[in-house]
Fold this sequence. Notes:
The structure is a single chain. The protein is α/β, with parallel strands linked by helices. Helix content is about 40%, strand content about 15%. It has helices at about 10-20, 65-80, 85-95, 105-110, 165-175, 205-225, 235, 245-250, 280-300, 325-330, 335-350, 355-370, and strands spanning about 25-35, 40-45, 55-60, 95-100, 125, 130, 180-190, 190-195, 230-235, 255-265, 320-325, 375-379. The strands form three sheets. An eight-stranded mixed β-sheet has the order 1-2-4-3-7-10-8-9, with helices on both faces. Strands 5-6 form a two-stranded antiparallel sheet. The chain is globular. It binds N~2~-sulfamoyl-L-arginine and zinc ion.
Amino acid sequence: MQWDAYYELLDIQNWLWNLVVAHRGVASLVVGGESHHRRSIIGMKISHGPGRRAIFIEGTMHAREWITTTAVCYIINELLTSNDTDTRAAAREFDWYIFPVTNPDGYVYSHQYNRMWRKNRRYITGVHYGVDLNRNWNSNWLVAGSSTNPAMDNYAGPGPFSEMETRSMSAFISSIGDRIELFLSFHSFGQLLLVPFGNSSEPYANYNDSINIGRRAMGALSVRYGTQYVTGNIAEAIYKATGGCIDWVKERARVPLVYCYELRDKGDDGFLLPEDQILPNNQEVMDSVIEMVHQAKRFGYMATGGVQTHTYTNSLLMFIIVGIGNFEQSLLSKDFSFIFRLWLIAALEDIPVPLKITACFDRAVRCFGRGKLLHIGFT
Ligand code: 0X9
Ligand code: ZN
């Protein structure tokens, strides 16, 4: 694949397959779901071994947003072929699940009949086709920025998960959900990095971490060509819109770090981004993804070592945590399971773990607040 043209679905699928052949043992194809017209939603899994935490990336849920397709393909290409040290390390350290086209019927239609098509291609009623797949997820469905009118581009469908694409992809995401540490959706356009939720700017448990990590990633994005992105909550930075993919992934799949990119540009060419911007766009996006992984680790996410909790269900280890203040709430939050995991890894890998212990404490202190943390340990 060259980075100076937009490709059709079959070309992309062939390209993915050729990569699997060239990178046997590391790259494999996964079917994450199915479209209304029975096309497979194909993704690339990149894995250098079992037991790793996962990073999930999806693009082209909106058919006309062609720059997202090529950007996601570029990420796959770099992870498999780059000589850059950080990129190679990131490729080895995580299981990557990467889906360039999550709306294949719409994508094909946008190539063959209507370049500005956005939705899927299910027949609804009268002359109307298509549901907006980014309004059809079962998270605050139809609460804001969605339509009940099938003629509209933001038609949310007759019910949450009424569509084959969202239903099957959500099942796939759920099946690997507790391994996913970072989830990225790619859309265009607007040069934004969005965090949940689509109807409220109320900060969730790790909202500040998410914004901080996101801003730093966008700093890295800007270095190569000076492209500026704004990081912010969906409802504030773009508009209120619910039933979106990342909201569901955050709320229901409980993935710690979840972002939606709105790629180039800011409206000059919009969805029709000229082909000479493909490579620069893809390069700067890749810079940001690598920085995001780096920053996420610095903030205490992305625990490597890949220990799966169920391995330890019969373990004699007991985890005792004594805190005050928002203790109970923290117990229920993802932050707690993160600390728990870190401690399990630290203890069970049976290696000197001063760094992990430190990271654990840093994270715990951020979670509970300095001074509130009394004791964390094993018996
Ligand atoms: O409206 C959308 O779905 C996205 N913008 S786009 O121009 N690509 O259509 C924004 C999605 C924000 N995310 C959620 N609403 N969850
Ligand atoms: Zn979109």
